[in-house]
Amino acid sequence: MKILIIGSGGREHAIAMALSKSPNQNQLYALPGNPGIEEYCECIEIDVSDFEGIKNFAKSNKIQLVIVGPEVPICDGISDYLKEHRVDVFAPSQEASKLESSKKFTKEIAFENNIPTGKARWFNKITDASEYLNKIEAPYVIKADGLAAGKGVAICENLKDANLSLKDIFNGKFGSGQSVLIEEFLYGEELSYFAITDGREILPLIGAQDHKRLLDKDEGPNTGGMGAYCPPPILSSKLEGKIMNEILEPTMHGLRKRGVEYKGVLFAGLMVKENKPSLIEYNVRFGDPETQALLMLMKSDFTELLQETVNGNIKNYNLEWQKKRAITVVLANEGYPYQYNKDAEIYGINDAETNPNVKVFHAGTSMMNGTLVATGGRVLNVTSVAETLDLARERAYSAIEKISYKGKVYRNDIAWRALGKNT
Fold first, then answer.
1. Rounded to an integer, what distance in angstroms lies between the CA atom of residue 101 and that of residue 98?
2. Domain end: 133, 155, 183, which one?
3. Please, which pLDDT band fits residue 174 given cuts at 50, 70 and 90?
């Protein structure tokens, strides 16, 4: 089967790995891809925003399925565009993707369908937003309404910082024309939950916990994610049932009431307190770096799963997982998520992967004159699996010691919630 993966990060590298395991002997392409993805795919130099170029490539190469990794092309409508040209694509429509591109839209769905979530108000003017802040108590949750690469959320302990966050958003830090949501702060433990839907049925995948903050002990600025592990101990079968019955199924019902069909990944960011889940936000694609850990545990044929989703036929799909634990630790560039070091030569990936239970996914790497260099904010994702989370963590950090490049930074406490360890 000929499959095209759109994207260039660690998530797309993991997707390529999972597709390569299919007994169908897939012929894989990636655009633009990265040096790690080349292990499985032919990489094509087409920009992810060039919908016509992508369509022309898919047509001329008889691509049978396009898988879209990042949120921006999804929210810009690539699924609708490709379907209009009779190209099968695994990604929700532009209207359905408002679950991620508009936090206001998600809150409306939640409020209309009695989905547990925090109170929220949205504002188009900074004066109105600032006035509202004066009426509520800290901590303040300030969110840019639209896409912000995982960095458009500020949790502020005082009014001064909250107003500075408002100014950042209204001054265009996360894109021009952004409105603001001010939300109730929810207490508890965060959880990422993944499911796949074919428009009618919802198939649970697996839960994970990620680490958004840059520094150990969940300190520092928000990032796109500094590590993840799955499945988390917090996710009991009882809690999973509540997530499905109280959050995911009502969301799908709410979309259908609005005449919106949703096909693809449904990724819910949740807060759990006393075994009760509340919706924080939705993403409309596989998470990064959660996917790197998740797909290391999948036993089922990933290609078949995506095909059945696109074909609307997952009702009786039997999804199987390894009875193991997986962890991903992100290696970043010093200065991320702001200005960071670039073009440092990377050493030691082959040594890190001598353990068959370890896989190093490329996130922000390039080849320069035949040399592998670190060019992105998040550079590599070191992922390992084991029978226990403790052992998986030990393997990941042992592998990290074998990798070097100037400016390498990472968190030392990934999975601390599950293991009760801060270092």
1. 5
2. 183
3. confident
